[in-house]
């Protein structure tokens, strides 16, 4: 592209609340612009298994479309605020955004979180009311809510004027008419070209800001970001600037543009292009500006949110270690965590006194849980400690991280939720009641109180609640919060669990195992109904006799075992316990396996 051709570039971010149809919409844009040929792929942007399974976008990704001579770069952002650091960085790369709102669910907390960030950066909005084919869609009400939201968040009047479109990503059409039920994506492409401004250079020389990272075994570190001014070509001498540091000169070896799902190699690029570039001899940091040698011009960047929760990852040393996984040693663990650090920006990994164990810190339970889940699918076995919150001492006062949490709940759940939040030392900031039987509560709550809140919250609201949180900063320590008071039922034997033994144990607590499961000494098989731990034998068999007694030989009736997934385990365990994670099982155990030594 020649230099004067930047008027043909449009950079746009797609923002929305979780599950309002962003990723499906991008699929349609890629197909209808002819960028992707195969019509079979669904949710192409969610490339990672976990993203497909949970139906959420975790990593911000880029794609590009060619439409009638224009090159449209699309950045897909996550709506979950656990990945909030991703959102702010991606918004820096664009001139405008497409706000997607579900026609039935209306404006939700996640929409607000991302929209306020976008308006602070003075980006130009286009609003699309999506899923208008839903039976429970209320378009007029949704329009009013959107207007209210913009009135509330806009910094000046120019932000209150925006084009409004209607459509259904699943059916593949967008229209300026709210009664349309078919068509194509042309109105959306036209609106992007008409309303989103073309990129303007910010300085006279090259500025390429790195907003995310990748790594290739052949090309080394890859910087992904955008050219804010000047132009860049293969073989050019550049320097890396960040804050007041500059690197020694290095040469650009390859430049890639994003087109559809592919990276397309190119020789040069100019203002407004979103690229991946290589040629670095050592890992590069997010927020680094790549400049011409001799012209250091660092570009201002958004800092990544600080980690608030840490967990110790260690080698699995249980009696069952090595039976299922392929990666077992501390070297495997160290290499895998170092690889993750290259791309996962909000993560920190520190060594500990023991070579077998690493302290891993991140932006919350979901952030660390996703990493562990990915590792177990790759064949790793590891042990996790109970999550701990990262405290800081500020002016001699012990401070802890606080999250701002927005709960969108049915009104009948209000009592239970408010009582639950009160126990967690939360402060109510705001409460709004809606006509449709829902209400919204806004709290400030210590991060450590949110461990285990997700599953409890879904139970309390019967699955109808929606929650969103964002980091609010550090505040003085709020005092002790009550955690699990009940003890554990710990196995004294190694072997297979029998139904006979469980039948005798089920009155004494909640069981986590089923007949036939393999257990070992020191493994936790249930929750005691009282305080204190209880050593039990879940492998006991019935003594066989010749005599038949009426009544005692009836079929055993066992209550279903409580299923303990990774997130529930993280919030359940105490400091003297560990979670054993293998590709097939998640087990709970005591740190000291032998009962005699524990006492």
Task: Present the secondary structure layout.
Elements: E1 9-16, H1 22-32, H2 49-54, E2 61-67, E3 70-76, H3 84-91, E4 96-102, H4 109-120, E5 124-130, H5 139-153, E6 164-168, E7 173-175, H6 186-195, E8 207-216, E9 220-229, E10 231-233, E11 237-242, E12 245-246, E13 250-251, E14 254-259, E15 262-266, E16 268-270, E17 274-278, E18 289-292, E19 309-315, H7 330-343, E20 348-351, E21 357-362, H8 365-377, E22 382-384, E23 388-389, E24 392-394, E25 397-410, H9 414-423, E26 427-433, E27 438-446, H10 453-460, E28 466-476, E29 488-491, E30 495-496, H11 499-505, E31 509-511, E32 518-519, E33 523-528, E34 534-536, H12 566-572, E35 577-581, E36 586-590, H13 595-598
Parallel strand pairs: 1-3, 1-4, 4-5, 5-6, 29-34
Antiparallel strand pairs: 2-3, 6-7, 8-9, 8-18, 9-17, 10-16, 11-12, 11-13, 11-18, 14-15, 14-17, 19-21, 19-22, 19-23, 20-21, 22-35, 24-25, 25-27, 25-28, 26-27, 29-33, 30-32, 31-33, 33-36, 35-36
Index terms:
single chain, 599 residues, alpha+beta, eleven-stranded mixed sheet, nine-stranded antiparallel sheet, 13 helices, 36 strands, 33% strand, globular
Tell me what you see in this structure.
The termini are far apart. The chain is built from 13 helices and 36 strands. By secondary structure, the chain is of the alpha+beta class. The longest helix has 15 residues, at 139-153. The strands form 6 sheets. Strands 19, 20, 21, 22, 23, 29, 31, 33, 34, 35 and 36 form an 11-stranded mixed sheet that branches.
Based on CA atoms alone, the radius of gyration comes out at 27 Å
Strand content: 25-35%
Percent helix range: 10-25%
Q: Give the structural class.
A: alpha+beta
């Amino acid at each position: 592209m020649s230099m004067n051709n930047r008027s043909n570039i449009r950079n746009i971010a797609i923002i929305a609340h979780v599950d309002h149809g962003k990723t499906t919409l991008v699929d349609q844009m890629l197909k209808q612009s002819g960028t992707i040929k195969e019509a079979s792929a669904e949710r192409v942007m969610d490339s990672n298994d976990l993203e497909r399974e949970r139906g959420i976008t975790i990593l911000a990704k880029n794609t590009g479309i060619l439409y009638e001579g224009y090159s449209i770069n699309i950045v897909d952002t996550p709506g979950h605020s656990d990945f909030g650091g991703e959102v702010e960085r991606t918004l820096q790369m664009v001139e405008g955004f497409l706000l997607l709102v579900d026609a039935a669910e209306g404006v939700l907390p996640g929409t607000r979180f991302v929209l306020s960030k976008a308006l602070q950066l003075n980006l130009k909005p286009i609003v699309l009311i999506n899923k208008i084919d839903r039976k429970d869609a209320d378009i007029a009400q949704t329009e009013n809510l959107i207007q209210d939201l913009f009135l509330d968040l806009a910094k000046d009047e120019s932000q209150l004027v925006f084009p409004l479109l209607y459509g259904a990503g699943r059916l593949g059409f967008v229209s300026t008419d709210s009664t349309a039920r078919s068509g194509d994506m042309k109105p959306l492409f036209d609106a992007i070209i008409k309303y989103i401004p073309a990129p303007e250079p910010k300085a006279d020389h090259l500025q390429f800001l790195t907003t995310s990272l990748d790594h290739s075994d052949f090309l080394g570190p890859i910087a992904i970001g955008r050219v804010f001014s000047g132009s860049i070509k293969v073989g050019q001498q550049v320097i890396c600037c960040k804050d007041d540091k500059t690197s020694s000169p290095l040469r650009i070896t390859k430049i890639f543009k994003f087109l559809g799902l592919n990276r397309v190699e190119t020789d040069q690029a100019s203002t407004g292009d979103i690229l991946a570039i290589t040629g670095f001899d050592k890992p590069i940091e997010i927020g680094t500006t790549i400049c011409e040698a001799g012209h250091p011009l660092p570009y201002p960047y958004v800092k990544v949110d600080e980690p608030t929760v840490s967990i110790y990852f260690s080698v699995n040393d249980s009696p069952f270690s090595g039976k299922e996984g392929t990666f077992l040693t501390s070297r495997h663990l160290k290499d895998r965590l170092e690889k993750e650090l290259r791309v996962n920006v909000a993560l920190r990994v520190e060594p500990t006194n023991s070579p077998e164990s690493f302290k891993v810190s991140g932006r919350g339970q979901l952030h660390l849980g996703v990493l562990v889940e990915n590792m177990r699918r790759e064949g790793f076995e590891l042990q996790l400690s109970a999550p701990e919150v990262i405290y800081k001492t500020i002016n001699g006062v012990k401070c802890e991280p606080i999250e701002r949490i927005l709960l969108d709940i049915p009104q009948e759940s209000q009592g239970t939720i408010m009582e639950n939040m009160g126990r967690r030392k939360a402060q109510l900031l705001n409460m709004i009641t809606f006509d449709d039987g829902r209400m919204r509560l806004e709290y400030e709550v210590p991060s450590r109180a949110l461990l285990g809140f997700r599953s409890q919250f879904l139970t309390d609201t019967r699955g109808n609640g929606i929650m969103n949180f964002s980091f609010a900063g550090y505040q003085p320590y709020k005092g002790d919060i009550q955690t699990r008071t009940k003890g554990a039922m710990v196995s004294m034997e190694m072997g297979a669990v029998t139904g006979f033994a469980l039948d005798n144990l089920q009155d004494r607590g909640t069981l986590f195992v089923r007949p036939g499961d393999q257990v070992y000494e020191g493994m936790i098989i249930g929750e005691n109904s009282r305080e204190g731990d209880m050593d039990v034998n879940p492998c006991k068999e019935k003594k066989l006799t010749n005599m038949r007694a009426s009544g005692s030989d009836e079929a055993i009736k066992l209550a279903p075992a409580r299923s303990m997934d990774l997130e529930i385990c993280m919030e359940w365990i105490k400091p003297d316990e560990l979670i054993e994670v293998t590709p097939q099982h998640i087990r709970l155990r005591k740190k000291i396996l032998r009962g005699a030594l524990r006492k």
